[in-house]
Amino acid sequence: MAVYDDLFNMDDSMQAHGAIFGPEPREHTSWTHELIAGGVGFAAMKAYEEYVRSNGTQLSHPKMKEMLASLAVAEVEKLF
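and the corresponding structure tokens:
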């Protein structure tokens, strides 16, 4: 069945893809990325709390604050 081996062989396609796009990027995380992301999440929450207090309203919704900080951390993690 040499005909089918040549017909469905993807080695040439894989080599062409590798030549154009290069190797697949390696996903990695390090503690510095997480530390920076945590700092940004903290800064985002602090800025939000200061904004709410400057308007004279009472700070509430602890779950919303936690979600906002988590979203800020997730967005920073995408940068690295």
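(Above: one complete record from the training split.) The mean pLDDT is 76.
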